[in-house]
Each structure stands twice: as C-alpha cells, then as structure tokens.
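Follow-up to my post from last week.
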Amino acid sequence: AQSVTQLGSHVSVSEGALVLLRCNYSSSVPPYLFWYVQYPNQGLQLLLKYTSAATLVKGINGFEAEFKKSETSFHLTKPSAHMSDAAEYFCAVSYTGGFKTIFGAGTRLFVKA
Amino acid sequence: NAGVTQTPKFQVLKTGQSMTLQCAQDMNHEYMSWYRQDPGMGLRLIHYSVGAGITDQGEVPNGYNVSRSTTEDFPLRLLSAAPSQTSVYFCASSSLEWDSGANVLTFGAGSRLTVL
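User reply:
Got it. Predicted complex:
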C-alpha cells in the first residue's frame, strides 16, 4: 500500500532563506510523486511531479525536488523564499497505471519578512 | 475553460439533514474523485470513479454516496449529516498523461461544510 509522510506540520523561514519541506513515501511498486500547493482559500494546484524521467525535478515558482530511491524521499526545496510562497504544501503518491492518489498531511510554510 | 466546478462553496446543515455536493468538469477526464480536508490530516480520499458507471471507495467512505452517470458529473451525497462530516471537500479530475502515465489532478475550489 502507498503512503506519504511529511515531516513537520509547520515550517517557518525568513524571506531569502532556503526552503526545505520533507516528504518520505512508501510504495511497493515504482511510484509517481507529486507536490501540490494550496494558497489560502483556494484549491490545490500542481507544483511539480516525478515520473521517472529525471530524479531532479523542477517546478513552478523556482521550486525543485529530488527523488532518492535509497532514502524513499522526495523533498521539496527552493533556494530563496519569497513572501508569496506562504501556503500549504502537500506531497502525494500514485502508482503506474493507477488513478488513486494518496496525500500526506501537509506542511504549512510561513515566510517572515 | 472552466475546469472543475464545485457547488455550493459554503453550506451549513443540521445533524440528520441530507445534501448533495455537486462537481462538474469540462475536460473530458476519465477519473474523478472526492477528498475531504481536515486540519493536520491532509486530504483523505472518500470515493473515486474511473469512468461513467464505475465508482469505488477510498479511505473514508462511510456516510457518503456517489454515482457517475456521465463523464462530466460526480456528485457526493450525504444522506444523514453528522458533526464529524464538518470539513472542506474537494473534487478533482484527471486523465493519465499520455507521455508519462502520471495522474495529475485538477482540483475544484472546494466546498466548506458545517454540520451543527
């Protein structure tokens, strides 16, 4: 069965600092991995996805994530935080040929001026 | 292109009342699903459908019914609302990407339900 664990329900960084949001997954088959972002009072939108084409994946707004099979991790990073990055971020997993997508509990990112 | 449309955006119910959350998509997606979002628990899958006439249960299906009579619509029914169903509900749709096979979800804006 697939599952996702996000370490840290809240992360606070200063503007301009590195953003690191952690995600570990469990999957018995090769996974597809996703990061979605939810801005206040909105639905979720795709930030980036891993589909086995490349282990380092670049997404929108300067975010990227690296798939590490040995660590079963898919951590999200951004070199320099901006105030507009304040949102909730969700890591998710699905599997080859499957439609079901399982989400982690989410990490709320706060950016301090 | 409207994407995924959910109605209503807000609803207050009394315990025991019934209601239907509507979801419609105009992207001809095969797959549709309902999630509920609760603080600290992320999004939990309630029900999903892989095509018209086909539905299946997700992680938290109790207290909810769904049907998929058309590709476009996937309503979620609460037959007898309970306070534990107070939540924000999201509908999503998708098709498998032709090049990668990944299932990228398009979400509606959400429906906030309060059960008193």
